[in-house]
Every structure is written in structure tokens, then in C-alpha cells.
Amino acid sequence: MPQIIRPTDSEARTLARNLLAQARHGVLAVIDPDTGTPYAARIAIGQSPEGQPLTLISELAQHTRALHADPTCALLVGEPGPKGDPLTHPRLTLLARAEFVTRDSDLHAHLARHYLTTHPKSQLYIGFADFSFALFHPTGAHLNGGFGKAFRLTTADLTP
Amino acid sequence: MPQIIRPTDSEARTLARNLLAQARHGVLAVIDPDTGTPYAARIAIGQSPEGQPLTLISELAQHTRALHADPTCALLVGEPGPKGDPLTHPRLTLLARAEFVTRDSDLHAHLARHYLTTHPKSQLYIGFADFSFALFHPTGAHLNGGFGKAFRLTTADLTP
User: Fold this and answer.
1) ipTM value of the model?
2) What residues in B contact A130, CB-CB < 8 Å?
3) What is the pLDDT of residues A29-51, one digit of tens each?
4) Fewest Cβ atoms closer than 10 Å to its Cβ: which of A68, A138, B69, B117?
């Protein structure tokens, strides 16, 4: 789809914030520490009570090892529905740095309480010793609002 | 989801090949040439008549610029359906090198004829001067067949 960059407007900002707020899963792009090449994995996405994007991931996953080696990453959110052309469905590529949260901390407990309301099935594994939260600190974003509707967003655009 | 790597069996190979053969879109992970950091974008995915994965992308897109600068990439295929836990839905991370196909070539015409049967809506833009095919040459793959079902596949595993 052609990506002529449009001037960011309030509609684009609202769309981007909604895509982040509503995300329950997405695709993480990282650098594989073994090869130095790009790697992609589907991960769960949630939000802190304050609205910051986060994930709950296992230390056993390749992408978790990658984030420990280099926390610079991208996160694609905005899943196409079962109907219509998936490439016209709005999506956001968040550019971010991941920060792991110590499991035995007040912050972990704070995040876990909220996460269980948005991801009730995570009750099955949230207590496993290899699972922890990683918060995403945005550094920018690319919004694709559909055919020909591309925007470059700043971190200020992403926060109300 | 924990990712203890299992020995590759024929079930895993079949699942991986089916995910690739059935993909109509997916998520591409590349290195952003402007920043040197990971970047992710949803792209259309098709197959050559011989079964090789490919995409039809615009020169105007950031991820296309990235592939020209460094063709090493990853491609996540296997989209979760509207029902069930999306993280238990099988998906494949293909590690690959992208090779662009010259628009004015017999290979382009050969790919276009088949692509239009799997992506009929691309008729709207396949003729645009900025759109071309890129073939993905696999170098390996990570298969996640659901909770605890992780496999590392070779290129031989991916081809019947």
C-alpha cells in the first residue's frame, strides 16, 4: 500500500491510542541475539493501569532472550478481523524499548492485578517462575490507517 | 508460552508447510535503515506457482526501503481466528532473505498470474509502477504449534 506520510491530526492520534489501548496480542520484532538478524513472534499485549503497553512473557522464549540482549524493539498492534481486506485494517507499529519488571516487586503485583482483568486465561501461567512483565517505553510509532493513510507519530502523540 | 524445543516430526513439518501455503498476509520484521532498529509491518503474503513465499509491496513503504538496504528478514504467518486464545493458534516465524523481482520480466508476469488468483483485490494496484514482488528465500524457521509446542525447522523441513 502506498505510504505517503500525512500530517498527524487528532483523528490519527485517537486511532493510534485506541489501537494501543485495545491490544490483547500483537507481533514483536527484535534482533535475534544468536544471528543478529530480525526475528518476529506473536506475544500477549496488555496495558498498565496507567495505560503503558506491556507484555507477559516467558524466559524460555527466543524473543525474551533477544529483549534481554537488546531491548530495542518494534510492536505491531491492530489485528484484522475475519471480514474485509486485512491490509486496509488500521495497525500501529510502535517503536519501543522493553524494560523487564522484577517478579518479586510491588510493580509486578500492581501490573498483575490489572492484567488478569484483561487476560483472565493468564491465571494459568502468570505464577510460573519463568514468566515476567516487560513494559514498553515508546520512542515513536508508524500508523497505517488503511490504504494511503500513513502517519509518523511522536511519543507525545501517543499519550493523551 | 514456554518454548522447550521439541524434536521435529512429520506433524510439525506438515503444519509449517500448511501455514506457509495458506498465508494471505503476515507480519514482516526488518531492520529500519534509518535507525538500525527492528521494524514490523503487516504485508500481503502469497506463493509462487512452485510454492515459494512472496509478497507484493510498494517502493513507498518503509519496510520495502528496509529490505532493499538489508534483505535479511523474518516473516510471521499463521493468523489467529476470531475465536479461542490467539496465543495457542499455530504460527511460523520464517527466517529469510528477500529478493526483489524486476517488474518488466517474465518472472513478474508468471508470479502475477498466480497471485491474482489468491489475491483478487490486488488487481486494483498490481499495475502501479511502485509495486513489485519480493520472493522470500527461507534460511530456517521457528514453529510454535501452541502452548509448549515449539520446533526449530530447517529449510529441508519446509519443502516437501
Assistant:
1) 0.95
2) 2
3) 999 998 999 999 999 999 999 99
4) B117
Model confidence at A4, pLDDT cuts 50, 70, 90, reads confident
Q: Confirm if A26 and A76 have CB atoms less than 8 A apart.
A: yes
Q: What is the mean pLDDT of chain A?
A: 94
φ, ψ (nearest 5 deg) of residue A156: -65, -35
- Taking the Cβ of residue A72 and every Cβ of chain B, the question of whether any pair is shorter than 8 Å is answered with yes
Q: Looking at this protein, which amino acid is placed at residue B20?
A: L
- Å between B97 CA and nearest CA of chain A: 10
Contacts of residue B37, defined as CB under 8 A and 6 or more positions apart, other chains included, come to A72, A73, A74, A95, B31
Which residues, other chains included, contact A54 with Cβ-Cβ below 8 Å and sequence gap of 6+?
Answer: A45, A46, A47, A48, A101, A111, A115, A133, A134, A135, A136
Residues B42/A87, Cβ–Cβ less than 8 Å = yes
Reported as half-sphere exposure (CB side, CA atoms, 13 A), residue A31 has a value of 14
B141 vs B153: CA distance, rounded Å:
5
pLDDT per position as a tens digit, A52-110: 999 999 999 999 999 999 999 999 999 887 777 888 899 999 999 999 999 999 999 99
Which residues are CB-contacts of B42 (< 8 A; sequence separation ≥ 6)?
Answer: A76, A80, A86, A87, A91, A144, B25, B26, B27, B28
User: What is d(CA A64, CA A58) in angstroms, rounded to the nearest whole number?
Assistant: 7
Number of helices followed by number of strands (H, E) in chain A: 4, 8
